[in-house]
Task: structure prediction
Amino acid sequence: MKFLISPAKTLDLTSTPSIDLVSQPELLDESQALIDTIRPYSPADIASLMKLSDKLATLNVSRYQEWQQEHTKENSRPAVYTFMGDVYTGLDAYSLSESDMQYAQQSLRILSGLYGLLKPLDLMQAYRLEMGTGLKNTRGANLYQFWGDILVNKINDLLDKDELLVNLASTEYFKAVNKKKLTSPLITPNFLDEKNGQLKVISFYAKKARGLMARYLIENRCNTLDELKAFDLAGYRYDSQQSTKDSPVFVRPESAQPKK
Result:
């Protein structure tokens, strides 16, 4: 079983990773091409393109200028310890054991607008480039056209015959993977929370739940759909009535939600 998650806008650039192991991203030539494309942009251009404040636009223009293709421990950090946000709160990489992290290196991939596909311990430099950005480039009008079939081909290379691919990424990011060309079964879990007696996707909770499921799959070395369906963290339980063959649904009652 292999599984995908999204990156995050917020970055942690100061904490010390709990494991002193790193790896290199596989698509740095592609990343450099994107950096070369975006480097000429002014802060005003970036603010308009990404709908950022002037402060954030200026910060990220500086990051594009400082970005180097050679990634070292001095200028980079492992991805799983750098991305912050709800998914990564659920994953809680800092509390995973070294054997868990080595398993994650084989099974977990992070989709990225700049890096394409990252292993958890791949070194990365600070950036802001969401997959949905309409950045005109040598291959088209946006990042989906830039990455084309590169990502699905890399994912297919990871998968053994009939091995499950579990999509825990957002719609924006998974759209970069050409589903029609996947060579293995695709499973997309969904997480519903009860609100005033009705079940619905609550974005904040769903993001954290995707991170929790990634952690569950790592810690339990899950390989089958039945093992995935046993996911029971934070009050979620598999609901067969809400589920379909390719989209298992996990439901949490309002009584089990965190108290505000």
Notes: Residues 203-219 form the longest helix (17 residues). The chain has one domain: 2-256. The CA atoms of residues 31 and 58 lie 20 Å apart.
